[in-house]
Fold:
Amino acid sequence: MHVGIVREINAGLQVHFDDAVREYAGRLLDSEVVAQLAFNIYIRVPPAGGETVLWRRRWQPDDEPLRVPGGYGFQEAVAADTQSLTLRPTLGEGFLFDPRHYHTVRPASDGRRISIGCFVGLTDDGRLALWS
Ligand SMILES: O=C(O)CCC(=O)C(=O)O
Ligand SMILES: [Fe+2]
Structure:
């Protein structure tokens, strides 16, 4: 699988989760993916904005009515009243988190927000699998 993606996320993202096991039907790898992480290193950061927000909540079936029509994410109300972490990346910093938890990126007020990232999966035979 391809590993490593450069992303410029200046306008922010919808609140979403990433779960390769849920998003790809069938077996993704020869072994089961039992844990997933997202890893991003920030190689250009805006002077203001661009925070990553991570909520202590994973998708539940009752969340479906809060999907953004035609979008890939959810209305922020999906994570209301849930503990959250807001990280404002600094240049060269890396952030490793469980992307099955709801997360978003706030818009940068000006400037560019560029990261290099990949997803890391732990398989049930004890290996790390990387993809983007
Ligand atoms: O750029 C970030 O901080 C997070 C982007 C994102 O949604 C992800 O890596 O899954
Ligand atoms: Fe994500």
Summary: The radius of gyration is 15 Å. The mean pLDDT is 95. The pocket of 2-oxoglutaric acid (ligand 1) is lined by residues 9, 13, 18, 38, 40, 52, 95, 99, 103, 105, 115, 117 (CB under 6 Å).
